[in-house]
């Protein structure tokens, strides 16, 4: 189950009211930093940008592949454990702007997690230590530790025994 906070709006849809929820200057700063990080081939530099400039929690030796897109509005709500791989072109969201509301949720990715290419991780998700997420998966609910998840809709197809 996803853990999100809901904020209701009146008037135009919530995305139209974006700059009432997050400062334009923050969005522009984050945009520039995220674009630099997306194309930087050096993992220590990416992780430094995420930690120091976007205030994300990023563990030791975690690797964000080329073109990973972290949340533009609230990247500080993303936490990634040690020795985790996030595959090419994966998107990690911590916000959803809907017609009459917007939602915010932390994304917590454990240690030793493998996330394949082209995944989308929705707000309010926890991915447990040692889990594997197959390429192309839309992570729409939390994944337990050491589980294997795949598909859209996502299904957990197996669990590893004793963390192996």
Automatic annotation (TrEMBL):
The keyword Transcription regulation does not apply. GO terms for molecular function: transferase activity. Keywords: Transferase. It comes from Halolactibacillus alkaliphilus. This is Acetyltransferase. InterPro entries: Hexapep, Trans_hexapeptide_repeat, Trimer_LpxA-like_sf. It comes from the Bacteria. It holds the Pfam family Hexapep_2. PANTHER family: ACETYLTRANSFERASE, ACETYLTRANSFERASE YVOF-RELATED. The keyword Transferase applies. Signal peptide: none annotated.
